[in-house]
Amino acid sequence: MDAIVGLFGEGVRGADGGIDRCALGELVFRSDAARVRLNGVIHPLVKAAFKVWLAASGQRLKAAVIPLLFEVGWNVEWDMIICLASSEAVQIERLMRVRGLSEEQARLRIAAQMPVAEKAARSHLVVNNDADATALALEASRVFRLLRERSE
Which member of 12, 34, 45, 130 lies 3.0 to 4.6 Å from 24 by CB, making a disulfide possible if both were Cys? Predict the structure, then answer.
């Protein structure tokens, strides 16, 4: 947190002392250079945490949600990559509804990532997430069974 405030100033610190994600988002999704600086701080920390988590004993089957998996080149470290894909219209609607973003803010976040079609083409399995939560839960159960079978 201190490193992020050091990079972007006190304006990204929230009233609770944490990072104001809205203020930080306004900076990093409007500037490629700012996003690169932020990723330079965040990605090494995330990578280190993943290494510890993966090395920990426990269940053999482990899953992680990594939105920038391909962009940061971590795709070679996984046995199976599953792309959870939805249309741009659904992505925008969900970002606006769930995170309270404007349409412009939602589009900026989507544009900052690799296109979903490209992620899907690079993945081992694609799960369509344009439907409701019930449909996604059914698909998640199917995928979990598949993963469990492969890990045995």
Answer: 12
Q: What number is the average pLDDT over the span 99-127?
A: 96
The amino acid occupying position 138 is L
Provide the 10 A C-beta neighbour count for residue 139. Answer: 15
pLDDT digits (tens, 9 = 90+) for 11-58: 999 999 999 999 999 999 999 999 999 999 999 999 999 889 988 877
84 phi/psi in degrees, rounded to 5: -90, 105
Give me the amino acid identity at 80: M
Query: Which residues, 6 or more positions from 13, have their beta carbon under 8 angstroms from its beta carbon?
Result: 5, 19, 20
Q: Do the Cβ atoms of 126 and 85 come closer than 8 Å?
A: yes
Euclidean distance between CA atoms 70 and 113, whole angstroms: 9
Residue of 12, 14, 22 whose CA lies nearest to 105: 22
User: Which domains, from first to last, does the chain contain?
Assistant: 1-58 (no CATH), 59-152 (3.40.50.300)
- CB burial of 71-99 (b: ≥16 within 10 Å; e: otherwise) equals eeebeeebeebbbbbbeeeebbeebeeee
Show the tokens assigned to 64: 């992680």
